[in-house]
Structures are given as structure tokens and as C-alpha cells.
Amino acid sequence: MYWIAFISFILMNYKVASKISNKNLEEILIIGFTIYTSSIILTGYGLSALDLWNSRILWAIVPFFITSLTYYFFQRPVFAFEMEHISAFKVIGSAIQTTHQTYLKLTGIERFIFACLFWSFLLVCALQITIVFNSPPNEWDSMTGHLNRIIYFLQRGSMSHFIGTNWNIDTYPRSFCSLQVYPFLMSGYNEYLFKLPNVGSYWILSFGIYGILKNLGVKFKTRLFLSILFLFLPNVLMQSITTETDIVLAAYLCSIVYYLVAYRKQEKTIYLYLAGLTFGLALSHKITFVFSFIPLFILYSYCFLPAIKKKAVFVIKHLIIAHILGLVLYVAATGYIANFIHYGHPIGPPTATQHQSVERAGSLGNLFVQGSRNVVRYGFDLLNLDGLRNIMVVEKVNHAMKAPFRAIDQGLHLGLEKVTEFTIIPFTFDKRFEFYNGSPIYGSIFIFIILPSLLMFIRRPNWMQGLFLMAFAVHFATLAFTAAYDPWKGRYMISSAIYLFPLLSYLSSSIFERKQQWLTNMIFGLVVVIISLSAIFTLGLNIRALPFNAYGKKSILELDRVAALTINRPDITPAYQNFEKLVPKNAIVALGTINDDFEYPLWGAKFGRKLIPLNPFEQGIQAIPTKADYLFFSKGVFQPKLGDIRLGTDTTLVKGVLVRGEDYYLRKLH
Fold first, then answer.
1. pTM over 0.90, yes/no
2. Three-state DSSP class for 661?
3. Contacts of 77 (CB under 8 A, 6+ apart)
4. How far apart are CA 548 and CA 35, in angstroms?
5. Minimal CA–CA distance to 615: which of 164, 168, 172, 142?
6. How many CB atoms lie within 10 A of CB 558?
7. Which Pfam family, an example, fits this chain (predicted)?
8. CA 383, CA 327: separation in Å to the nearest integer?
9. Pair 434, 656: CB distance under 8 Å
């Protein structure tokens, strides 16, 4: 029954989207995504307020009512005259027909390029589906914070203020919890479905890029090529199979940009409201959305000024109303206000803000110096063959490519590698394998597509594409100046790419719309092959989720659940496996753990255990409750005593270990 409700709800959202605006397929999908996320997030807020966040039956019913209210809202007279009534089947049929007709007119090299992309994409999708639906999530933040707190919230029936061992459990915005828990509950606690929002966002990004380029006047072959190319970005591919949050934020941002350019082209009020509501969704999702405030202001000015000149009062009034609605509906309850009440800061306690924000830099002068260094550091992070680097031969080529830059850094004393005061993990030209494998950026697409497009723009500038380039530059600089350098932050550049991709029509349109020499066509065909291989290797040789045996390691499909969950921390795997063997599935377990400890695996495969944190963030050690059956603890929190069982952390393991595991013990309390 719950599966039926889940599928029916998805179909309902796209039915409503087709009623609201069914001009084209990509718009139906983007609006459907906005309505779906909106309804689920509002359902989560409402059920949490009633302490019913863990009610499967209410999760199966309430979202339908909220989507219905959304539909009635968009039936108001201000939108009604803009509606176009076209059959959804006709829209889909038209898209298929257009694609088929274009294919028949392709030249030989164009057929090769699209065939290479198509077959590579099928292989990538096969790898993606295999990994998503056959392996549990295992990202570090998910094991300590994001997914772990969802189970705590289910245990409590509410997302209200709760201080767990990791500061993310209480301080991270709560809207995404609802998007993850909804398919999890509807599937009967299938943890693989935690990844579903990421998979959906992966597709929305492609259709969003296609729609943005279409509204900017880019021709069909070019926008089709670039919308597929976006799916081949290594950081986009990597996040599509995880439960990390940045790809979902990027999908929100892509939707906003689509609504903006659609409004500029058509001046329909509905796009203005959809942009305002999605702005609220994005801000409710993650505080790093503020990186896009200035870039979006640039695009808002570009898209709304023509209409403001004609009907200023109308546009400004509805623009303000739309964004206030988004802030009130989605942002108010997400946690920023609660953080301010409890910690005096919307992000969280000083420990968190000083570690990851601009405050770490100290004075304004030092921020300018260190932020400038970070701009250069992240620039060199882009200049890598990520994806292909999973092959050691390519990594040697990548190392050689960096030799001149390393010499310049040392010769001019730039301090890119030596100065570490505004870094979380020090910068190196040769990032260690775990970083570029776990958080790649643009890879060969940057070197072979983005850089040539930038050079072409410099030779032949276009003011509209220049605005998008400016938005990218500001977003990139904001990342560098507002937080300490971290090699994992490549994932934030998924959002940066949305601003950058309109610029890539320079190179791709010259290939598809102008006659080129055979040598140029051959080179571009080779580039497409390299990019396709990079996409395949990004997933096929991803050490966190190997679909087959590689690097002397087993496929994640062959590992037991605990080994798969702790794959990033192989030194603690034996301890967690022993815990799983010794502790009953429905036991109450008190936890004497620290901020970096993985707590999610301790719930058990069926999530039947109850966990009670005894070392809540910055609260000090709490008393062991009498109702607890077991105490799971690290030696750094509680001292072992006679009768405690040492679970077996491998304290000698160094290779592939980013943070050393604690020495874990188990104590039976009754």
C-alpha cells in the first residue's frame, strides 16, 4: 500500500505540473520537482510539530493534500490567464519527434559524438542504478550526522531541538531530513532509498540545464550536448550515488535559474512565484546557498529589469510576496531560528562557525591574503584529470602536468602548500587518492571544454554570457573567501557549474553549427571519448562503492552491511562487526562516543535498537540511564574496567585512514 501511495504521489505532482505549465517536457519535470519537494518538506514540518514525524500512515496521506493546495494556489486569477492546456502525451511525443528528426540530419562526426555520449550514458546509468539499489550509504557525514539524526528523529517522533554527539545532528537545517525519510518510510525502512533525492536531483540538473539554454536561445544540438555533458561532471556523478546534500542544493539552484530565464523570455507571473518559492527551498536546505546570493542578484537584475521598466509596481510587489512566502513556508522552521535561540548564531555554536566559516581567518587583511590563496588553490584543484585519475597511469600524467606550477609556487614563495592557517586540510598539488576519488570536481571537462570556451569568450565577448561568467566568478570567489580551504569542497562547485555552462555554448555551438576541418572534428571526437571514459571510471573505480573488484579490494556488492557502512574507516570495521554480533537487534544502547564516531551502523540492519548519546556535543558526559542494556564506548570517553569487551579496532592500520578510529569497548549493563 505504501509503495502505491509513494508512486501515486510522484505521478500526482507531475500531473499538477503539467496542468500549471505544460509547454514543454523539461518544464513539467522542473515544476514537478519543485512541488514534490515543497509538499514533502511542509509535511515534515507539520508532522514534527505534532510529534508524529514517525507516522508512516500520515506520511502516506498528508503530502497529497499539500500538493492539492499548491494546485489551487496556482489556479488564482493572477496565474489563470497564463495557463496553456496541452496534453502531456503530446508534449512527450513532440520531444521524441524533435530528437528523432534532429538525429536524421546529423553529420558523421555528430553521430559519432552523440552515439559515444549515449552509450556511455547507458553504462553510467547501469553502474549508478546497481550501486544505488544494492549498497547502503556510507558517507562520513551521513554516518556521524545526516542519516544518523534521521533515525534519532524517528525514535523521538519529532525534529525538535536535540543535541547529539555530532554537532550536525542539531544545527544542520532540517528540510532535507523530510526528503530523505519519505521514501525511506514508504519503502519499509529500506536505507538504499535515502539516496533517492540525489538520483532525482541528478536528472533535474540535466533537464534544468537544457531548459536554461533553450530560453537563452541556444540551438537544439548544442543544448542537448551540454545537458548530457553536465551529467558527466565527476562531482555530479559522485554525488548522484550518495546521500550528500550538495547535488540537491544544485537542483534547487538550477530550477531557480530556469524560472528566471523563462520569466525574462515570457514574463509569466507563475515563474516569478516559482522562483521565490524555490529560493526558500534552497535556503532551507543548506546555509551554503548564501554563496549564490550575489550571483543570483546579477541574474535577477538581468531577468527582471525589462519587465520592471514596463510594470514596476506589479513585478516588485509579486517578487517580494513570492520570496516572503518561500522564506516563511520553508526557512522559518528549518532550524536557523532555533540555532540562534540556543547558540546565538543561525549556523550553530562557535566551535562550528570558527571551524568552517570566515571567522577562522581573523582580521579583514588576513582574510584578503588567505582568501586570495584559496582562489588559486581551488583553481589548481580544477586543473586536474579527475575521474581518469582513478587509473594510476593517468595520475602520473596529472603529477607531471603540475610540476611547473609547483616550481612557481616554491620559487615565488606563494605559500599555497606551506601556509596552512586558513585551511582545514592543507593544500597539495597532488591531492591524496581519498580526496580526488571521493570528491572530484570537473576533470577533463574543465581542461578540454571549459578552458577553450573561456578563451573564445575573451576573443569574442557576449554580454549575456558575460553575466553568467561573472556569476560563476563571484560564486567561486565566495567559496574561497568565506571558509578555510578544504579538498572536499569540490562538491560545492556543482552549483558553480550551473552559472558556467551557458558559456560553454561558445565551443560546442562552433562544432555543431559551423563547418569545421576534419582535424578539428577528430580532436573534438577524441575529447568526447576522454570525457566519456572519465564518467565511466568515476563510478566504476569509485573506491567507496566499487561495483566490481578493483585496487585489490572487494566490490561493495560482496561486502556485508557493516563493512560497507564503514568502508571509509577500515580500521574500525572489525569493532563494528563484533558489536553487531554481540548486541541483540532490539537492545537499548548507551553511547560513549565522540564527534567523529560512526553512530549510524549501531542502529542495526532493521533499525530496531534504541541509542542514547551520553556525550552530547559540548554538554559533557551524562549519567548512564538505568534502562540501557549495553554501553558502547571509546576509550577516550570512558575508561574500560574488568569485564568490558574490547571490540577490536585495528589501531595499527594507517593506509587509507583519514582519521584514526577510537579503541571501542562494549559493557553489558544488566
1. yes
2. coil
3. none
4. 38
5. 164
6. 12
7. PMT_2
8. 38
9. yes
